[in-house]
Amino acid sequence: MRDILFELLQLVVIVLVAPLVTGFIKKTKALLQGRRGPRVLQPYYDLYKYMRKDAVVSKASSWIFTATPYVVFGATLAAAALVPVFMRDSLFSFTGDLVLLVYLFALARFFIAMAGVDTGSSFGAQGASREMFVSSLAEPALFVTLLAAALPAGTTHLSSIVAHAAERGWPTSPAFYMMVVAFAILVIAETGRIPVDNPDTHLELTMIHEGPILEYSGKSLALLQWSASIKQVLLFALLADLCFPWGLAASADGPAVLAGLAVFAVKMAAIGVIVSCVEMSTAKMRLFKVPRLLGAALVLSLFALTAEYLM
Amino acid sequence: MLPLWTLLVPVATGAICYAAKGTRLIERVHLLGSTVTSALALGLVWRVSGEGTLTALGQFFLVDALGAVVLAIIALVGWTASLFSVGYIRHELQEGTLDDRQVKQYYFWYHLFLATMLAVCMVNNMGLLWVAIEATTIVSAFLVALYRKGEALEAAWKYLILCGTGIAIALLGVILLYASAVRTLGDAHDVHGLLNWSFLNNPDIRLQPGVVGLAFVFLLVGLGTKVGFAPMHFWLPDAHSQAPTPVSALLSGVLLNCAMLVLIRFAVVAGHTIGLDEIRPLFIGAGLLSILFAFPFILVQQDLKRMLAFSTVEHMGIIAVAVGIGGAAGYAAALLQMFNHAMAKSLLFMAAGNLTQKYGTKQMARVTGALRVLPFTGPVTLIGVLAISGLPPFSLFTSEFSVAAAGFAGGRPWAVAVMLAGIALIFGAMLFHASRMMFGAPREKPAAGELGRWSTWPLLLPLAFVVVFGLYVPPAVSGLIRQAAAIMTGGWAS
Amino acid sequence: MMLTATSVILVISALLLVWVKSIMSSIKILALQSLFLGIACLALGAQTGSAEVYVMAVLTILVKAILIPYILAATMRKINIRREAEKYIGRGVSLLLASGLVVFNYVVTERLDFMLLGSEIQTLPHAVSMLLIGLFVMITHKKAIMQGIGLIVIENGLFLLALSTALGMPFIVEIGIFLDVLVSVILISILSYRMDQTFRSISTDWLRKLKG
Amino acid sequence: MDESWRIWEHLRLWLPGGALALLALGACAAFLFSGHSAVGRRLAHGCSALAGAALAASGIGGLSGGTLTVAHIRGALPFTDILLRVTEFSAFFLLVIGIVGLAATIYAAGYVKEYEGRKSVPLLQAGMLLFIAAMAGVVMAGNVFTFLLAWEVMSVVSYFLVMYEHERPGTKRAGFVYAVMTHIGTVFLTIAFFILRHYSGSFEFARMEQASLPASAQSLVFVLALIGFGTKAGLVPLHIWLPRAHPAAPSHISALMSGVMLKTAVYGFLLFTLHLLQPGPVWWGVAVLALGANTALFGVLHALGEVDKKRMLAYSSIENMGILFMGIGAALIFLAAGQKAAAFALAAVLVHAANHALFKSLLFMGAGAVLKAAHTANMNRLGGLIRRMPWTALFMLAGALAMAAMPPLNGFVGEWLLFQSLFALGFDGPATLLRLAGALAVAALALVGALAAFLSVRLFAMTFLALPRSEEAREAREASLSMRIAMGLLAASCVAAGVLPLVFAGAVQNTLERIAGFSGASSMLEVSPLAIAGADSEIAPAAAGLLLLCGLAAAWALARAIGGKTRTVRGETWNCGEPLEPRMTYTASGFSKPIRVAFQRLLLPSRVLYVDRDPRTPYFARGFTYTGQLPALVENLLYKPAMNLLVAGARLFRGIRNGVVQSYLLYLLATLVLILVWRIWR
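Predict the joint structure of the above. Result:
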């Protein structure tokens, strides 16, 4: 009973913390660039504002456009229920594994892309096309990396992987580090950050993820942005789980959970700092340069696997 | 006495047709005569399948199951073709391509042709077998040369010269066989009976291997020319494409089978002396060569009837391979294939006749949208093409499958593989031409519509056989075929 | 013995057929050849005293030596041919080739032991070589009618063989063969007549429409 | 209870044969009443609907309780008996055939009205019935003759169905290529069967299974079977007929061909590799895996390059067959190593086969509905149909989601199983290299899967969303009731099969239990009504679906709770201040452009830009026409040259028949001499 409660708490935490992480990254980026930047809590204010605003919906669009934000949020929420954050077990771990997780994200992307086309605006369609393009190139690398990550545990079941990795202690094999780098690249690609995409621009030439949601306003926009930040947190958490899964609460008792929460906060902060460093130190790539980056990730993860096999 | 009547009726019919005045009367006589002939022949077949081999006029006539199979083919195809002739000849008369004298000649030679072919299946003496085969050549040459056209003349001439030569070579074989028989058994038996099939088809008979071997080579080459084995088949496409359509149907549906029958009989006899292993490779080689030769000619063919003729070459090759494979299964398959091919090919030739008469050309390139133009003949042609290439649910699938199966069982996998490949390739080529003729939107000329009852209904008979035998072969038929195969195996003691 | 001599004569006459130019003279040679055959047949009849052989001899002389040449000649006259026999290859070469064929066939038949068949069978090589020469004539000549003549040469060779090996085939068969030969010769002359009507020539060069 | 059980037992025996009889009956009815086709149509549809149900039922019936012999008819010759039987293995495929056949029948009732007056409808129906019967016959065949008979009848009938609209340009060629390819494939099969016959001494599958072949013969048979069935399955480079033939046929026939006929190839290949042959060397599996991956990638890339909807679906069928063969390859590798995971891979194959049958036929039917409504399959001329045909759009959305393997639809279950088995190969494959192969396969499958998602978005969005890009699309009307019912049926079964894996996965388990060498299947694969559990992982699709629903509800609730009630106003799409016109909206070819660019080394796309210049001034152009398409590389590089060579050779060879009688005589003489020489100097 108790652990179910805690696992539920886990879910809630993800949903609530997500905008904070976004704000934190914005802030650190600004500071690193020597600006004051928006407040850390700014995303919350934005979301609230959007929620209360009336929405303008394109005449050309259909119910797909209206339904999409809810489907996306729902899918992201479902994904959130699968990922252990500060406990080794997650609420719905029995429903599925890494594959299901990836496909839930894919489901969200599917609907976003269709909504992008639905408005009839060519920005939306363009963004949708690019979104699908980048993701379809990212997928193979992602799956091989997951395989590499799951290999020691010999299962794709997230909680078991985490548990196994936590027992294993600090890995020494080069494979591990290659895997980490590859996964980091993929996380950046999936979260739509520089150098793959730039979340802060609406220039049709550069935007990918922002394209499809260009037409959204009001509640829908709020939901979409919220789920975007949730997805980001989930991916960070996944990175943490697969790469340094230490400090997660093994059992559902207060102190352990508190410790887990603390560790989680630290991890998020660390990743956030790293991400913002990367963002300010690199420029956005041309779209057709992206495949090379992702290809590099794929090769890395394959090397990682080979090394793993040969050890 | 039945065989004698079976011979006399067509001769008489021919004579009357020649003497009679007025097309209508001639047609009636012709129809009556051919019906009676076929009835008699089928009666013979029935008796044979019931009572086994029967003889008449002492030992002069002999009809065994082997001959009965071909006899049945003659009866069925002959009757269908004679029905078809009526419509065809009327149309030619209207077109003015034939005049009354030629029509008389046509019916006269037609029945004589039937008579000679019937004789081939019924005479006992193998020398007379040769005579009968030569007679078929001459008689049918008259039919091939019926039209007053340079091409018809040319075809007839080539037919006569090539087959005449071939048959002459075969005669050399017959003489050697006879000589050897006289040397070894002459003093023991009556010399006149020495060449009788009933006498020679006996495993215990051993003649001189050297002589018989040589004789068989001459027989194979000679009769092979008549059967249409490559590369002696070059007369065949010309004759078949220039003859009047019903005759083409007879030529490739029946005549070649008769020649094959003769060849088989001689092979059986030779087999007693020199054993199978001398003979089988020759048959299989000739068969495969014919199949492979036919393909390129079909692939780049422009003339419809000639394409069908080449497909006949291919099928004679298949039959030869089946005979070469041997064994009860192989022979049964060969005979079944003979029958099915006769049906399908006569069907195709008559359908082709309708097409050519409708479009006024034999050039396949000029025929388009036939499915629409000829609502009956078009589909029938398509079915015929699929059937002839051995696709189910049509009869040739069964027989060709049996050939292949027998081949693998008989330890000739490579021959069968080559054969199957050849068949598949030829299917592709024929389907290519057929689909270009059948499908697509028709041009405005000629206007849609069949030629008439006489040119469509006769096709139903072979069509029925092609479709029904694909799914079900009546036990009577399969029994007859098994008897025939037994005769061949009983002969070929291996 | 006598038959062997005849057969040698026949072969030589056949070679002569390869040599001569005019069609008429080749018809004459054919008639002579058949006559020889008939005479040999008569002699054999005298030897064996079998009625059938006599009948066959008479038939040979009547049909092959008189009737057939007559038909051919009549056709030629009707056609009133203008030019002489045209060939694909010159006379010398063709004679050479023909003799080559003959030699080849002797070599071949050497290798088969025909002692089983007895002594007279020495006519076999001659028969086969007549067959080959006949074929050769048909192949080398362009005039349609010459091909008919070639056919009959072959027939003669075979008849000789039949005669020498077994006093001819069974009687009825022989009759049939005679009939066939006769009818085919008639057919040949009819066809060549129609050829002349259609193409104003009986050269096979006109018979090349049907290809492929 | 006991009574009803006995009735069920009787039914199990009689249903399959009865279904075939019904189909034959219906075909005859269609022919007989071809005069007044209304009666014939009703009869035919009635029969085939019943038959479809009967087939499905007999499939379910056959899934348990041993082999049923349906019919045994003696033939004229010893080896031409006709033997029909149902095993657990074939029952699974019967089930699929039944369901799709039923849907196709219902669909046809409305769809054939399209042809009334133009063409002979009874022929079309008779063809469809015979086609279904032939496919059922293939999986029910109990000996070689019956199998080949049914197999070839299937090909012939489908050939005629492809040629149904033979006046349309390209159809002739499509049908021809199809017929020839499939026939050549059959030759390979025939030879493979005969080799088996040679060693087993029997033409009956049941006896063949006990035969033991020498290794070389086994591999030979395997290769022959791979080529033979690969041709039917459309494996690259034997696929050329598929993208031509499938679109040419009427849509419900395309649905049957893509959905079911291709599965008979899978059935046949499994029949060889699992039943007739003993487990073979590892390279079999590797070869099949590589071939499958290659095919899948090729198929999906070309599908993305295609703007004709039906051709695109056909290519996607190629892709899915590739995926299936990847699964078979994995299974063969495990079998060679004697690993239980084989069961898992096979489960993946069977489940995905069934799923693909469902959603692909659904999509083809939807495409047919659109085609009937808008008279074009060119997606560049469609768009915005969701308003005109809402139901079709809804069902197509289900199909598209399934094709993209999105949870909680059925596509996902198959994809998941396949990923699991490939992961298993990566985790503990027999050898290091094989594990790497597994990893590569995972990468390939992931790429294909993602591209398939791209494809589905493109398929749905470019057809139904944004603005209609042509007059026809603007005039489109919703599909008729029966068509909607059929599509709804399939869409529902897609969802059902996705949420309750039991529907198929359970059947699969029954099947696997009885396939040779999988007695331990259950230990590998546990299927409870709600969840599938493998050794490595488990999913509960139902729970996932529930989770998604909760998520949706939560989203709505949150938005409502935080934002309160807000209004929604309709406005123009922002288009840089311009009013939005249909021709400004993105087209299908533009949508997949990035793929064409990224893979141009592989696909060598051709792009033609035609500029209509203004004669008066060089600076302005009146209009631009841009066409970008993918060339059919395999055909251009492989088949066309071969064909040309063949024809040229034939023309050359035909020269020997020069019309000169003397030369014919020469051939005669030469033959004689040669044989004599052979005879004497041998």
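Chain A is about 70% helix and 0% strand.
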